[in-house]
Structure formats: structure tokens, C-alpha cells
Design goal:
The structure is a homodimer. In chain A, about 40% of the residues lie in helices and about 10% in strands. Chain A has about 260 residues and is an alpha/beta fold. Chain A has helices at about 10-25, 25-35, 45-50, 55-65, 85-100, 105-115, 125-135, 145-150, 160-165, 190-200, 210-215; strands at about 40, 70-75, 80-85, 135-140, 155-160, 175-180, 205. The interface between A and B is large, with 58 and 58 residues. Chain A binds a DNA duplex (30 and 30 nucleotides) through helix 4.
Chain lengths: ~260, ~260
DNA sequence: CTCATATTCCACAGAGCTATGGATAACAGA
DNA sequence: TCTGTTATCCATAGCTCTGTGGAATATGAG
């Protein structure tokens, strides 16, 4: 890989950019990065979540680390990986946006398998804020519990998709549900909505996921969901029980 | 490359994202994409600009086309490539930002070879707008002429870096110069500024290049520079002589 | 000190990517 | 139709990347 490097320097620069490109050339690495934009995780958890052998996952993570897109933290014998800063999430966001904009296949896949996921229109952030204030909706975080506790929309309830059916009774049948998940390409919320509607509930998806919410500069709450059950009312209970690594900057920032 | 595709669909999605990732894994492809975000070009011109053999450049362009990141237009025996929409430029912008934020090497390279490029502070877009209104500065587009005519800041003069020294006399010595180029990682403007300062002129770089300007929703003018010489005054002469392929959307838009 | 757990390192085989030159295709002009 | 120009296609050789299992490392508990 020596492109007649005539000590131009310019080519050195592009080689640096390619270091980052190298990370997103492999589907599994993108998947890992996506997961890490939601919450930090141990190598084992990542391997499990992405369906990889441990050594393979570790190898991928090394690649990502060499590109400085992830950082690690040791806790006992375990190593936790996390996305290295907000720019990383913004980058994968741009990648997702680009894919949705340019690749018809993406919409196709979403439509084909997402229980008509892409079909239903979504709630905008502004609308959500307004209706939450008015107490008209329940906000539901249907991602796995770890991701919820690493950061969620203030006042949202944690109800992972896999438990939704069993815990359906916890939701007030009269309130509309707004579900959100990892982002526009994630299928958790659409599936949740589909399930809820099947039970006669009113339910819609938020226009995008937590990373976008965070990047928009809106507040994010950390800690586990304390609500044992019932009710469904949830006007910004401050259930923050911060035992998490704080992400670098809270600011919004636009491409500075 | 068959990751035990258990008809999950999820993995298909990441495979689609990786199609895009594949483009930015190779330094030369990033370079080509960068060029295409400035202006459309023929294969030959691209090969020349990136220092590639024709067949190699063509092969790279095929990869980019398969990922739908570029589109083509035929004109006689020549084929012109262009970036496929604004999202593409936004994506390479995000890539650049990420590299600058996370890779210390990038700053190092910039500093080492850029004639202390990264050192001097830059003019913000807002400041530029204000001072242009007041007629206090000359805005200089130091990119190659083709890129200027494909789109430039209204009222800017085209004076490619390679001709700057020879045509120095065309610039009013009393006005400060604000030079811009392709973006934060481009060295044309810094080198121009360095040269100008060496001749005792007041000169600074714009904070970033034309793509960012365009993405900020600010107006962009097309066509060649008609100003034969002298003066240096340039209060938004409408020198638009539109014979260009218009980019898709003019809107600003923030991550839809 | 020894053992158990969680990761990383290593070597290797199979698959994929890149650059290159020569052949082919599309087009314009005579 | 013939010719020159521009770009794409094709086959190939050299190199890199990926997944894998086994070995090595780091930490914590006895």
C-alpha cells in the first residue's frame, strides 16, 4: 500500500482518513460501532450481541481502537469498550443518513422485513416534547436495559422489546405510546409499535433514536428505570442514578 | 463474506452500510470523492488530479458508482463524474471532522507540512459576511479555475494558488485578503495566505471551504470569473454565467 | 502461589482487493 | 466506413484482510 508516496503529505492525509474508513468497511464493525454508540459494553457482550466469536470480536475491536474510534476502560478482569466521543456517533449517523438517502436497498430491506416498519409516519422531536408536556403520551424506550441506563430520554420508561408482550399490562391503555430505539435504521421501535397496534393500542415511533436526540442537544437522563410497574404516567420523574461513564461533551455543536 | 447470514435482515442492513464504507477504505478513493465534492470532472481529469493511471482511476470510480456515491453524465466521448447529492459531501465532511477530532496525526501532518497552516486563526463565516458587506476585504478563491466556476462564494475572485504569485499585482494592497479552498484539510488557502503574508499583505484563511459554506445554506454562485484584472473590489458582482449541472437541493437541512 | 476468568496475541489458510497492461466499447469527425 | 479519443472490461500476480483455534497475558479470588 505505498502509493508512490512522493513525500507529498497530501497523500499522507488521505491515508489517515482511510484509517477511519477501514473501520466501516466491515459490516460487523459497523454493527459494533452502532452498539457502542448506545452504551459501553464488555468484549463478551459485544461478541454476543453481534453474533461473533470472542477472538473475532476482539480483533475487530483492535482495528477500531487503532483508528481511535473506540476507547477502553478496565474493570477487574473485564474490558469495557465505548465510542470515543460524540464525533464518532455523528459519523455513524452521517453514514446511516447517506445510506438511507442513496441506497434504495436500505428502504427495501426495512420495508420487507420491518413489519412494514418504514411505512408509518413518525413523531417529530418537537411534537414529542409538546405532547409529553401535556401528559398525553407515554414515552417508551424499547432498547435493552443496559442501553436505557446508559442514557435515555428524560421521563421515558424502559420496556425492552423482548419483554413488551409480557409487561403490556403495565401500560395505561388510554395513553398513546411513542416508542424509540437506536435510530432510523433500528427495528426495535417499529416492531414494538406493530405489536402494540396489534393489541389495539395507539402507538407511533419517534422520528429517530437516542443518538440523534443527544446530538440535537436535548437532555439525556442516566440510570435505571425505578418504576416497578403499573401507571404509565411519567412526567419527567428524575430517576437518575448516575453510575455511568459520562460522555465527553454535553453541547450540541454543529460541525464546528 | 458470508457472515452466517441467518436471513436476519439486520445483517443485510449492515452489509449495505458497508457498501459505502468500502468507498472510503482506500485513500485514493477518498481523494477522488473530495475532488468530486468540489466539481464534476472527466475520468482523465480525475486520474490526473489524483496521480493515478487511467484504468486504475476508472476502476476506483466503478467502486464508487456501485455504492451510488457518484453519478455520471456523458458529453461526447467523455464521461463526467460528480458526487451524487449533497449527502455525499456531508458524509465526507463528517469523515474529515472525525479525523481531525480523533487523529492527532492529522493535525501533525497539517502543521508539519502546511507552512504552519493550522497555526493561524481563521475567519468565521459570519465575520466574513460582515466585512464583505463593509467592503473591507477581498474574498479569494484559490482553488483551480474549474472548481471556482462549478460554484463559489458570491463576489469571490478566482485566483488559483498556482497563479497567485504571478497575478499578485491584481490585488489591491490595502485590502485584507480572505482566502478559501476546499475545506479545513485543504492546504491551498493556507499556502496562499502564507505567500501573501510573505509579501507584506494582510491575509487570513476562511474557517472552512466551499462545501461547508454550501451546506450552511449560504448562497453559491456559478460561472467563470469575468474580472480581467486590477481593482480587487468585488461587491457581489453577479458574474453568474450558469452553464453547470445544478446540484440537487439548495436547502440547508440538518440531518433530516 | 495457583486457579479461574476475560482478553489479547499469534500463525495460518482461504478469500478478496489493487494495480497494471492489453483488449474492447462508445462516440465524434472526416 | 475508417480513425482517433476516451473510458470500461478483463485476466493476473502480489498483497491484505478475515476467521479460527491455540497460546499467552492480566486480574482477582482462594
Amino acid at each position: 500500500m505505498e502509493y508512490e508516496s512522493k513525500a507529498d503529505g497530501r497523500s499522507d492525509l488521505y491515508e489517515q482518513l482511510a484509517r477511519i474508513g477501514k473501520v466501516v468497511v466491515h459490516p460487523k464493525r459497523i454493527e459494533l460501532l452502532d452498539l457502542l454508540c448506545q452504551a459501553e459494553r464488555s468484549v463478551e457482550a459485544l461478541a454476543e450481541a453481534a453474533g461473533l466469536k470472542l477472538t473475532t470480536a476482539s480483533a475487530h475491536l483492535q482495528v477500531m481502537r487503532q483508528a481511535r474510534l473506540v476507547e477502553t476502560r478496565r474493570e477487574g478482569t473485564r474490558v469495557f469498550y465505548r465510542a470515543a466521543g460524540e464525533e464518532v456517533c455523528r459519523f455513524v449517523g452521517a453514514l446511516n443518513d447517506l445510506a438511507r438517502a442513496r441506497l434504495a436497498e436500505v428502504d427495501q430491506i426495512l420495508r420487507s422485513l420491518g413489519t412494514d416498519a418504514a411505512g408509518t409516519e413518525r413523531v417529530s422531536r418537537d411534537e414529542l416534547l409538546a405532547r409529553v408536556q401535556a401528559g398525553e403520551v407515554v414515552v417508551l424506550d424499547v432498547r435493552p436495559a443496559e442501553e436505557y441506563s446508559a442514557g435515555h430520554i428524560p421521563g421515558a420508561r424502559s420496556l425492552p422489546l423482548e419483554h413488551l408482550e409480557a409487561r403490556l399490562c403495565e401500560l395505561d391503555p388510554d395513553l398513546e405510546v411513542v416508542a424509540y430505539c437506536r435510530g432510523p435504521l433500528c427495528l426495535l421501535a417499529p416492531e414494538a409499535v406493530s405489536l402494540l397496534r396489534g393489541r389495539g393500542r395507539r402507538a407511533r415511533c419517534l422520528e429517530d433514536g437516542l443518538p440523534e436526540w443527544r446530538q440535537a442537544g436535548l437532555p439525556v437522563e442516566e440510570g435505571v428505570d425505578t418504576d416497578g410497574g403499573s401507571s404509565g404516567r411519567n412526567e419527567a420523574r428524575s430517576s437518575l442514578r448516575d453510575r455511568r461513564t459520562p460522555r465527553s461533551s454535553p453541547a450540541v455543536g454543529g460541525r464546528s
